[in-house]
Amino acid sequence: MTAIDQPHDTSVIMPELLGPWALMWRKFRRHRIAYASLCLVVMIYIVALFGNFFAPEDFTDTNRRGIYVPPQGIHLFYEDKSGDRQFGLHAKALKMEVDQATMRRSYEEQSGKIVPLGFFVKGHSYKLLGFWKVDRHFFGPKKPKDVVYFLGSDRLGRDILSRIIIGTQVSMSIGLVGVVVSLLIGVSLGGVSGYYGGWIDNVIQRLIEFLRSIPTIPLWMGLAAAIPLGWPPLRTYFVVTLIVSMIGWTSLAREVRGKFLSLRKEDFITAARLDGLSDWEVIRKHMVPSFSSHIIASLTLAVPLMILAETSLSFLGIGLQPSIVSWGTLLKEAQNIRTIIEAPWLLIAPGATIVIAVLALNFLGDGLRDAADPHAH
Amino acid sequence: MRLTTRMKTSLKTGAAGLCFVVSGAMPALAFEEAPTLAAKVADGSLPALEERLPTNPMVMEVLDKTGEYGGTLRRAILGGGDQHNMVRLISNENLVRWSADWSEVKTNIAESYEVSDDATTFTFKLRDGMKWSDGAPFTADDILFWYEIFNDERLTPSKHAMYVGASGAVEVSKIDDLTVEFKFGEPNGLFLQNLAYGFGYYTVNYPRHYLAQFHADHNPDVQALVDAEPAASDWVSLFNLKAGPMHTPAFWQNADRPTLHPWHIVKGYGSTERMVAERNPYYWKVDEAGNQLPYIDKVAWDQVEDVETILLKAFNGEIDYMARHIGRPSNLAALTDNKERGSYDFYSVGDIPSNQSILMFNLNNPDPIKNEIVNTFEFRQAVSHAVDRQEIIDLVYLGAGTAAQTAPHKSAPFYQEKWAKQYTEFDPDKANALLDGMGLDKKDDEGFRLGPDGERFTLVFLVADVFGLQFPDVMELVAEYAADVGLDFQVRASDRSRLQDLASSAEHDAYIWNCGGGVVDAYTNPYCYVPQGQAVYWAPKWASWGVDNATGIEPPEHIKALFTAYEGVTTTADPAKQEAALVDLIDQATGQLLTIGMVQSDGAFGIARNNLRNFPNPMPIAGQLWTPAPYTAQFFFEGGANLP
């Protein structure tokens, strides 16, 4: 609309006109925490995508000489055999001792023995992106036979760092699918309901009330019985997430409807309509952007809930359960007194990861909301 | 007190007493009672001790020394289905009992008993003047009242197997007020043993004077009671509510029901945060010095959310005696660290199943291709060789236990090393050769073997995380060993009850569970050696055929031979013949490798506060052996009070 006010004189140098997206991006970049969070989220997805490349060990490899190893540090200087100080990334080699009375394992550093570490080392082989067979890893012990637990190991001697990295794949993908499905259904049905009103509104609202009245536990029990046992656990979880999100869109739809009801009488909507835009264009171009901040906020708040809810249906056999590695299952495995007393890193490491990821997503959402909100200053 | 003769039977394991042996006459005693009860007698709210005790009270041998009165035995209980927490602690009081070391059957409620030579007729003599916990007399009529309930299709839709012989249910008749006769149509050599085990409780837990009011045949005005009880719609549901079986929560929700137990509950299970059972003033046992038992005043259970809370309570010294829920290898280190803080020490628990984690293939698989493969002996042998049992023990069970098949433990009198050790060597090459030899030699591009139909051969294992046995961890390892020899084992974890539903209807491929029958209970609980009993998850259809030939699936000859072998155990009362028949059964069963055992436990542990005395150590326990009762009554606190 600004363009209409300009005189039709091409000789005047006009400032470069930015579209709404470019404006948003410019605003977003000024929000430093949000920008840093965006980088972090991108990194998390890169790690998830190339999981096995970043994981130093095979996440399923058990080790009877490595039960409950505490996190091992990375050291820089060591003394070689002749007694000279040398520079080189390494970890200290550990020796396991078993207390026969309590069956407890304790580990002592072996003096003089080191495990050299390096970048792009050879390790267990895996399929990169599911296609190419490779055995290079980003960082880890130089000798493939050595094992180093940067974040400690669990009760079966499995590397926690590798498990967290592999767990990223499930936690940051399938769980989010449910959030997105809820969003799509909620916005479109809520939008239709609020924009048109009348009998469509009536039908959709009664549908929402019906869905809300379904008791969830019996529904999940029915699902648990209906899903064939032969399905792989991930597919089961995916389908359950989809179904749960199909009934989980109702509250968002109500909020969207309320917003649409108040917006459709506004002058700029009337103007857009008079300009000959179709209903769909009015909704998409004018109404949805005007409350995108709300959608983004509710979206980012739903993500941590989804991660924590991963295991909540396990008791029916349709949630995520061990052998599948995700942040939720890692946390669940750590929720007992034995872990807190003997191996607190099992709780701290995945817990910290989840906190970081969730904070990053929240700040990202925050920044996006601020950038998208036309009323913000 | 009159001089009485007590009968002591010279029963060794698996035997039924065939003759009376008169033991030394007991000297007359002056009886003593707890101070709390003496106070009640003094103020007239309770009759004198001599009137409360039977004329011939049972003299309980103390395990260590004569105790002193006082204290509260504190435990923790989970909500919902944790009633065995009480059942096993305070209520295992049957006509006969097992000795504290589980080696012989002794008298208990019955003053004496007699077994006919052909092991069909069992006669029990009750104690004169014995009373329920409310003071009403306990006589033969109470047992006959149970028998009436037992025979009533409305109230007992399915009869417990131990009271049913091949030709029908037991016949119970009253000889006189204190004498009852149990008669079977054919020899039942294991009846006395069974009666001493947990489910013998049925006969002596139905107080006629209290329960008759809820029975339409005894109380024509029962409808008034039905109307007063909102949870009951007719008298049958009212009766089931008031007279629930003891191993179900219903029994523990009715605090009004009189019992013969050393303590009776004051508030029902689930109705309160802290369940308390108080001393039964009419308890019919005394120690050798004439003190009325129990020594300990009260038993209390704090209801908690989860096992972790029980552990914390133990660290704080709020648990006086407990093995249930917390006596697991994984908790040993943490419990050891807090020993001084909680003032407790460990005792050993002889919890010895035939195997604690067993791969059970469903030998009645509805899928014909899978069924044929799992029923091939070489397949099970190959799986057995593919599994590295020692690694499972080192990793999952922290080094505790022995690599073994599903077989009697080495502490069993009829142990044979061959049964436990055969096919247990870790030998993937042998496993591969056996599988190739079966015709499963074609593999897909991921290295998994193809079935005869050209599809990948996959078995889905059901797994539940129960008993602290870490079955999901075990299965994860097993699935990897299987993949190493080209077998695709999928693991599906779920809730225990859902898995058991699937398994008991034989819809599953395979299952991982534990199995009793590791020691003397192999006589009465052989469900992993022969498809007989409620929990035969490896062959549910053969088990139902065994009960009724018109149902289930007819088993092949080598399985029918197992049924025949077990008949050799049940139809004789001669201990030597019973043992010979049992050895024959186990030899046949283990030779067929019906199930694949992995780890045999060498026992578990429990904790007891430092001043608790007279508890069995080691304490035998089994699925049917509901210990520490009836020995809890002679537990006591040194000093007469709990440690601070």
**Radius of gyration of chain B over alpha carbons?**
26 Å
Number of strands of chain A: 4
Helix count of chain B? Answer: 22
Structural class of chain A, by secondary structure, is alpha+beta
Distance between the termini of chain A: 21 Å
Largest interface: A-B, 30 and 37 residues
Which of globular, elongated, flat, extended, rod-shaped describes the shape of chain A?
globular
CATH topology of the domain at 355-600 in chain B: Dipeptide-binding Protein, domain 3
Helical residue percent band of chain B: 25-40%
Strand order of the largest sheet of chain A: 1-2-3-4
CATH architecture title of the domain at 174-333 in chain A: Orthogonal Bundle
Range of strand content of chain A: 5-15%
Name the quaternary structure: heterodimer
How big a fraction of the residues of chain B is strand? 15-25%
Order of helices and strands of chain A: HHHHEEEEHHHHHHHHHHHH
Uncertain stretches of chain A: none
Detailed description of the structure:
The complex is a heterodimer of chains A (377) and B (644). Chain A has 377 residues and is an alpha+beta fold. Among the domains of chain A are: 66-155, no CATH class; 174-333, MetI-like fold, CATH 1.10.3720. Chain A is 55% helix and 15% strand. Chain A has 16 helices and four strands. Chain A has a four-stranded antiparallel β-sheet. In chain A, helix 6 packs parallel to helix 9 and helix 11 packs antiparallel against helix 12. Chain A is globular, with a radius of gyration of 27 Å. The model of chain A has no long low-confidence stretch (mean pLDDT 83). The radius of gyration of chain B is 26 Å and the shape is globular. In chain B, the strands form eight sheets. A six-stranded mixed β-sheet of chain B has the order 18-22-17-21-19-20. In chain B, strands 2-14-12-11 form a four-stranded mixed β-sheet. Chain B has a four-stranded antiparallel β-sheet with strand order 5-6-10-9, covered by helices on one side. Chain B contains 22 helices and 26 strands. In chain B, helix 14 packs antiparallel against helix 17 and helix 21 (557-570) runs antiparallel to helix 22. Chain B is 29% helix and 17% strand. Among the domains of chain B are: 64-80 and 261-351 and 603-644, D-Maltodextrin-Binding Protein, domain 2 (3-Layer(aba) Sandwich), CATH 3.40.190.10; 355-600, Dipeptide-binding Protein, domain 3. Chain B has 644 residues and is an alpha+beta fold. The chains are: A alpha+beta (377), B alpha+beta (644). At the A-B interface, helix 15 of A face helix 10, helix 11, helix 15, strand 19 and helix 18 of B.
